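Follow-up to my earlier ticket, as requested here are the two runs.
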Amino acid sequence: MRYLIAGLIAGFAAGILMFRSTSGMEIVPFFYSSLDALDILPQADPRSDSRHGFVVPVEGSTWVINRKFHVLNRIDSAADTLTEFSGNGSFYIKYGKVSSEIELFGLGGERYLRMKSMEKPFLSYNGELMLLLNGDHSAIRIFDKSGNRTGAGIVSGRLCTAISFSEGSDFAACGFADGTYCFFDYKGNIINRGAVRPGDVIKGIALSGAGNWGLVHSGNQDADMLRTVDIADNDFDETELKRAHYVKTAMHISDSGEGAFLDHDAVLIVDNDCDIDYRISVPAKRPGYSTLSAGSGIYSLCYTKNSGEAQVFFLGRNGRIMYAREFPGLSFIGAAISDNLVFARGSDSIFAYHIRL
């Protein structure tokens, strides 16, 4: 009960802090809960809303919560078991830390497959595509949710350094330390592949929801490049970054080819020719976890600053900072935009903002 009361008070306090960004948009904080209070949130039938969930991992358990902030399901993992969820929480894989078997389940607990594998599994946003990365990171096998080999079947390279999926759909991408990369459609077929400068490695990769544009971050210890890829026309453009990155950083690309990239102390907004339209100065980031999501005409950017505080920015497509908030009590934070809702998870809490257009 004390957590409930605390959550209600914090939610009320957040709710009155309305931010009007433009004459046609308001960003309104309206929900808050500590992670300790998740078990008192209302329950919902996972079959009623299973394709619109937010995934919240919490120390050996994973909660899937719908847009009304009702719990669709809680999946507990044993000490020797790991789980991998689809982006919307509709499917999850259980596999052992030392095991030769993986199992795919629907959110309600129904099992879709069991197969022999010692590979690391990855699931697309809706769970339609499953990628299995082998132990030496040299090959990825491609399956559908029924356990059938699909599309290209397998892709290989020297040391896989990046795997990502499109937001809201089931397109996929991967990159390797040998500088090669691939984009896949929702059936696992290769729709584009390429290579960056000799000697460079793929440091990050993203693709748009419709699978028509890709964004590739590559480089070495001295210099980095950013590349927009027109997947259908098999064409690309590049721009050189001012500094090299030694760990993965947040990036996003839209269906129109507009890219966003978190540099060390700036957010770069590039057009589909990879020309920098806006360079938005932000406090310097600490190497580590960061997220960039887009929707409703804004970007949500989350990362940890060099000084140790978690930071949230809402950015307009025109390069304007529309909202900024520092969270001194959180060691990390990440956010996703779904329709007009921004859902954020911090190190000890979850909260949400509503975008009113």
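Run two:
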Amino acid sequence: MNDDPHAPVTVAEAQGEVEAQLLLRFLEARGIRAILRGEALRNVHGLTMNGLGHVEIQVAPADADRARELIADLRAGRFQLDEDMEVPDGN
């Protein structure tokens, strides 16, 4: 256990690099700096079975509650784009 009050806090877990990057970028877009911590083999071989693709998404302790809420909303399908946010049209 880490006694450092400034140590990053795990707010979510992802299975694989794709999901981890999605959550990382989602939090960053909401103004929360995040880091990924996990098995290095996911980067080298793309392995995601038997826990090898396990990735922790970590943030500063001060951002932990907000990050958990945002991720919960995203995973529950409650997230909506801000009205003033531009969305690429895909062309």
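The only thing I checked on run two: The chain has a mean pLDDT of 81. Let me know what else you need.
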